[in-house]
Amino acid sequence: QHSDLTVGIVGIGLSKLEIDAQFSDIEIESGLWSSFYLVLEGSFTNFSFPSIMKSWIVYKSKEINYVEYEINDREKSSGRIKIDANHSDVDLD
């Protein structure tokens, strides 16, 4: 809670990453986003990611103050990243 988290370059060897945060700034770098199934969810949270990833969104639920994304095909991905962040900024570079 109330923290800044920067994760260096995430590579193919990663099988699972889960982040649960509140009132935080999170930045994760990877040139291999297409290898991961991503679940992003949160209330009052801003998720930003490279524009190419917008075409990979398989599910998006946007309510008034809550959003959830599922990105990439779960069955074809080599790893899973889940970020549950409330009142936060999440940047995937």
Write a short abstract of this structure.
0% of the residues lie in helices and 57% in strands. The protein has 93 residues and is an all-beta fold. The strands form 2 sheets. The chain has a 5-stranded mixed beta sheet, with no helix packed on it. A 4-stranded parallel beta sheet has the order 1-3-9-5, with no helix packed on it.
Any key phrases for this structure?
93 residues; globular; 57% strand; mainly beta; five-stranded mixed β-sheet
Describe the structure.
It is a single chain. The protein is mainly beta and 93 residues long. The protein has no helices and nine strands. It has strands spanning 4-9, 16-22, 25-29, 36-43, 46-48, 57-62, 66-71, 79-86, 89-92. The chain has a five-stranded mixed beta sheet with strand order 2-8-4-7-6, with no helix packed on it. The chain has a four-stranded parallel beta sheet with strand order 1-3-9-5, with no helix packed on it. The radius of gyration is 12 Å and the shape is globular. The two termini are 22 Å apart. The mean pLDDT is 91.
Layout of strands and helices, then pairs:
Layout lengths: L3 E6 L6 E7 L2 E5 L6 E8 L2 E3 L8 E6 L3 E6 L7 E8 L2 E4 L1
Parallel strand pairs: 1-3, 2-8, 3-9, 4-8, 5-9
Antiparallel strand pairs: 4-7, 6-7
